[in-house]
Amino acid sequence: MRIVVLVKPVPDTASGGERLRPDDWRLDRAAVPAVVNANDEYALEAALKLTEAHGGEVHLVSMAGPAAPETMRKALAMGAASGTLVTDDALAGSDVVSTTRVLAAAVRDLEYDLLLAGADTSDGGAGVVPAGVAALLGLPYLSYAAKIEPNPDAGTVRVNRITPTGYEVLEGPMPALIVATQALGEPRYPSLKGIMAARSKSLETKALADVAAGDAPVGGAAATTTVLDATAPPPRAATRVIREPADEAARQVVAFLAERRII
Amino acid sequence: MAGEIWVHGEVTADGSLANISTEVATIARTLAEAAGAAVVGVVVAADPAAAASELARFLPRVLAVSEPAAADHAAGAIVGQRLAALIERDQPAWLLTGAGPDGRDVAGVVSALSGWGVLVNAVGVAWDQGPVVTMSVFGGKLTTTSRFATEHGIVTVRPNAIEAAPAVQAGSVEPTTVDGELTLPKVRVVDRVAEAGAAAPIEEARIIVAGGRGVGGPDGFKVVEELAEALGGAVGATRAAVDAGWIPYAQQIGQTGKIVKPALYLALGISGAIQHKVGMQTAETIVAVNRDPDSPIAEFADVVVIGDLFEVAPALLAALRTRAG
Q1: Is B137's Cβ below 8 Å from some Cβ in A?
Q2: Which contiguous run of DSSP H or E holds residue A178?
Q3: Distance between CA B69 and CA A240 in Å, rounded?
């Protein structure tokens, strides 16, 4: 079973230092260290478990800046076999339309049974690219997976898709695009052996011209959206600390909620 | 006349209109007034009648598309294709939908098929020759204002961005058909499974009572659930509580879970680590109960009670019940 996982380097949210560049309001990727987007790690973990159970290997695809190989090595260290990075100055400032087109183009000529993507990214947070990639590639689309069960003999895959009230069991033919969530299970930490092995794994870098993105315009110059302004929201009021015993504390909290007309 | 503003009416498993769509419709109607444009709802479902007439309480005109394939197939790709075809036919300028899983699936398909840009996770939408979208990024650390560089686009709207308000006069429902085969592969729905506890999407809850590691185990969540019930709210959780198996993932709030903006967020035994904070810090009011006065949540909550949640939560329950009489 061959699985392609879409991964994106994002600013480390734990750093707390994410910012936009004041001149063009683009994400300042130099400001904070990059990590593999958390939801993509769940996708990768699920992919690794599936290849451990069914054989085969995992290939990474990313569209990102020139510093991305460092982050992608971390994903290779988790156990992916190889990767493709599409990186090009012209792609800086890409919107979701461009990102969808370029990722679809980068995946189009690969051979795979499953294409996995994280539910959204911690920087852009759009959560619309995987559905778009599936639409452009004409792939069955199984989103918000809490469980993935391929049946290689039948050439189908089942997914438990999380819904507000439970889940629906989806079944589609492979190859298919599946959107991964945290419910698939905790990602592994790279082993020392994995980290060593990652150094020599194949990580192919492609420019925009190397992927067949077609005639549709892509990149920062073709962006369909533009940020006008970014401001810090007004700070929250100072915290009121209640240290009284439970009954008195509860009385004060209820009075506070009533005062704010919440109850 | 400015281009039409369209609203994607999301349909729940039982065929009714999703709450989020009433909020999206309310926003769209306000925009249409400011723009002097027409506003139209679109419902695509196996049986769109119920959701379409509900949406027509909010909008003057609703297109109802019967799509038999949606009865037992995953909706995202099907609804997305039909919407893209209708957009091609009727040439509206803007499409608004919810920022939850169903809205995102449809927005992604329409964006790819139509080449329309998407502004995501709107917490407010104003009008200035086009939608001007306010969103909260980096977990509420920044508020950005964006617009489209083109004459059309898709906006995904977060729950609780606005209070839904029906129109003064209900609109009309127009059954319509869309020509053409569905070309994207269909994904069969083999089964629909209901799990207890999640009656409504947690993102839409006005009040959320959430538990973290400090709750200690599945038994500890009983008091969280009782408090949520007493307040008429939903139950939320941190990743630690979900990973420990105390509560389903659907209730998780934070970076890899849901982003919520309730009127009240009552946090029990939650330290307020950044991965959780990004999912809830735009709540209007945050009240925390924590033993540790130095926990991060004590710095950004409106009220923090320093104490044992197993003493404070029952006391809160009692005080609420006394008040309710």
Answers
A1: yes
A2: strand A176-180
A3: 55
Separation of alpha carbons B150 and B141, rounded Å: 28
Scanning every residue of chain A, which has its alpha carbon at the shortest distance from the alpha carbon of B184?
A138
**Calpha distance A252→B274 (Å, rounded):** 28
Please check whether residue B132 touches A, CB under 8 A. yes
Residues with Cβ within 8 Å of B141's Cβ and at least 6 positions away in sequence, in order, are: A16, A18, A232, A233
Mapped onto helix, strand or coil, the DSSP state of residue A25 is coil
The whole-angstrom separation of Cα B260 and Cα B235 is 12
The region that residue A35 occupies, defined by phi over 0 for left and psi between -120 and 50 for alpha, beta otherwise, is beta
Q: How far apart are CA B129 and CA B120, in angstroms?
A: 19
Beta carbons of A215 and A180 less than 8 angstroms apart? no
Residues in chain A with CB shorter than 8 Å from the CB of B142 are 19-20, 230-233
Residue appearing with tokens 């009782």: B226
Q: Which residues contact B77 (CB under 8 A, 6 or more apart)?
A: A131, A134, A135, A140, A141, B105, B109, B182, B184, B185, B186, B187
Residue among A216, A213, A145 nearest A176 (CA) = A145
Q: Does B17 touch chain A (CB under 8 A)?
A: no
Smallest Cβ distance to B193: which of A18, A169, A253? A169
Comparing CB atoms, the residue among A142, A181, A186 nearest residue B243 is A186
pTM of the model: 0.93
Q: Which one-letter DSSP state was computed for residue B239?
A: H
- Is A4 strand, coil or helix? strand
CA quadruple B103, B104, B108, B110: dihedral, nearest 10: 10
Q: Pinpoint the alpha helices (H) of chain B.
A: 19-35, 49-55, 75-90, 101-114, 221-231, 239-243, 274-280, 297-300, 309-324
d(CA A231, CA A76): 37
What's the pLDDT tens digit per position in A87-100?
999 999 999 999 99
Does the model's ipTM exceed the 0.90 cut?
yes
Q: Among B185, B199, B316, select the one facing A254 at the smallest CB separation.
A: B316
pLDDT digits (tens, 9 = 90+) for B18-59: 999 999 999 999 999 999 999 999 999 999 999 999 999 999
Return the biggest CA–CA distance within chain B: 63
Query: What stretch of H or E contains A253?
Result: helix A246-259
Under 8 Å CB-to-CB from A109, ≥6 apart: which residues? A212
- Whether the predicted pLDDT of B1 surpasses 60: no
